[in-house]
Amino acid sequence: MATKRKIPLRKCVATGEMKPKKEMIRIVRSKDGEVSIDPNGKKSGRGAYLSKDKDAILLAKKKNILASHLEVAIDDSIYDELIRFVERENL
């Protein structure tokens, strides 16, 4: 008898939607205060999840949501990198 596996869900900090972890991008702040994209979700540090959606990334940038969740200033290059990452995923 096959057991049904539990799919881990995460909440998008921009839209508030609950989605499977694989449909999200994790942004992590290390102990040094360095912010980076964590495509595998394995890096240590404080993390925040965003939907793999350009609109969600732009909303997070507009409202400065990542900065408040990660408690550090977010450079615009991180948002540009996120948008490029999402566009590559959707090809």
TrEMBL record:
Domain YlxR positions = 10-83
A Pfam family that this protein carries is YlxR
Identify the domain of life.
Bacteria
What is this protein identified as? RNA-binding protein
Supply the source organism for this entry. Heyndrickxia oleronia
